[in-house]
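Write out the 3D structure for:
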Amino acid sequence: MAKAKTTAFFCKECGYESAKWAGQCPACKQWNTMVEEPTAPRTGSSSSPRRSPLIKSAPARLSDISVEEKDRVTTGYRELDQVLGGGVVAGSLVLVGGDPGIGKSTLLLQVCRNLAAVGQKVLYISGEESLKQIKLRANRIGQMTGDLKFLCETSLDNIQEIISQEKPGIVIIDSIQTMYREEISSAPGSVSQVRESTNLLMQIAKGEGITIFIVGHVTKEGVVAGPRVLEHMVDTVLYFEGDRHASYRILRGVKNRFGSTNEIGVFEMREQGLAEVENPSEFMLSGRPEGASGAVVACAMEGTRPILLEVQALVTQSNLGIPRRTAAGTDPNRVNLLMAVLEKRCRYEMSRYDAYVNIAGGMKMNEPALDLSIIMALVSSLKDRPVDEKTIVFGEVGLSGEVRAVSMAEQRVNEAIKLGFEACILPQICLDKMRQTKKIRLIGVSNVREAIGYL
């Protein structure tokens, strides 16, 4: 009798299963994503399918379903609640990813402290740290009160039994790459283990109404390690961004079934843990040089939040046949496009100069509203003429040199007024639709030449 195959090939991107290896995944069309993994043994008779014990609900009409504000629980951090859409939803599955040492475990431990202090029953499960290591980190964060318990375990079968006994309201899994199911013969962190472990956690969360936070490791490309289907299975995907050697952190929502995916939360790493940054604009503009050319303050929108940031440019004479173009924090191709607009429409010989563009503070912004500020910074550095420190610039630039309208212009202007700016250069179309104010001088421009004229 032929021996049954116990291995199969899985796609790391979409989770597609195949009996043979292929260079290209037939489902998602990605190359070199098929990996060989042992398959889970099938138990029981095929004629009598096993019924899940968590499925105990009946079909319901929308009119019979009640949704109340009490279904959301605040985490104690306004920045995190804003990214989550107003708080934690009961029975949700949240994935938190980020680079090593960025502060994922620290933030979740602080969230556990806040939730336990308001009466929530919290269970923190770690597969990477011992209880003594967690104790040392908890002492650095502060005093822990309330019904908060810790567990060091990597077997999801044991974890499922403990959750059924303890019946917590919040569960933290740190991390999903260390968890394994005994019926899967592959190693922890493999495609099969991550997919099956997440599937079990999803059943626990939906069936028992328990909110589960999952910590996920990221690859060198910056995506969560494991199959791409992991992000499709969870309700919310949060990414920690920023340089771990810098003080600030940005929490960005990539996927959220209960709120907007355009919101961000700004945190600062301190000795006692992560602290909220209530005014990110003031934080990003701290330490600005006085009277320096090539520095312009711009305003970008992250969801409904306006953030003021400093755009820096350095234009120098090139000694190379092909001038260098470097951009940090924004799209380099967009910078090349804007420099071509300057050379064609304004007769600046930008092809003779090296250009370096940077968003101060390590922020990453690709919004078109930064186009006009980048152009103003480039011309300011080229002419060595500083832009007024109390002036803010924003607007989208087209290939013909026109300055096009941007969204939420009034919110951007109000943010500039709060921080004491005296002038604002913005698209003329936006100025015509705005209410006049005496708190700031509004300068409308229709093309790039008009904006450069104010230098």
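Residues 42-55 have pLDDT under 50 and may be disordered.
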